[in-house]
Amino acid sequence: MTVIKQAWLGTIVATILAAFLLVGCETAGTKTAIGGLGGAAAGGLLGAALGGGSTGIAAGTILGGLIGGAVGNRMDAADQNRANAAATQALESMPSGQSVAWRNPDSGNAGAVTPVRTYQTSTGQYCREYTQTITIGGEKHQSYGTACRQADGTWRIVS
Amino acid sequence: MRRLALLLTLLVTVGAHTGFAQGQQPLSRQQIMTSADRNHDGRIGRIEFLERMKEGFYFIDADKDGFVVITEYQILQVGDPKQFAAADRNRDGKLSLDEFLKAVSRDFDDADKNDDGVLDEVEMRAWIAH
What we know:
heterodimer, A: alpha+beta, six-stranded mixed beta sheet, 36% helix, B: mainly alpha, Recoverin, domain 1, two-stranded antiparallel sheet
């Protein structure tokens, strides 16, 4: 009986000590989350962005209607090319909130494309929501859309 | 204002310290805050954190196949292969976005010492340091 009691007492004491040690580690802020990537790596990811290095794609390759309707009709081919190139660069390489601007000195028209959100579809395809501003003849037009990256590196406007 | 300045300094320091290969560059101070701290309150909430991490995943997925493999992950020079392996729940040698977000969500929980759902500059500093 005494031996059994001593064994139980030992187990309880060991458990309490272990609990104190665990609490101590946590409050000291020295543990690493089990299954996490670690503070330094995750911190680096917060600042991750591309300055290049992704698979090469043709500048300005945007499939679908980046700019349609009345606004698109008032832009010439050079405007459209510059807008497409800016959109490709923004979607491919810019973090949300960072714009790529374009300007055509011949027509005086200008614009900018800004990613605002990045997500992945159920098939693993990357899509990015973006805002676009276009200034034609001094009039500013804004639009919002979504583009998804194709397997060949092009971006397709989906909405 | 002081809190914001400290957080900005920390994020820039971390981004610069980790470094990126092959022309990849850490964001500037303004870019980090614009892209992570969406409501501009000087703190990073869980949703802001995970949204930014989705972009981190997109940017380090160099071949854009929807998964991050160890060679891509090691662009972060502090990326630990053991932690990568632990995050790879199905042991297929690559991280899906879901596996990745589960892992960094644990990092967020670990960093959020006072369990208020946001990371302030003190929590960020302590978390990155250990």
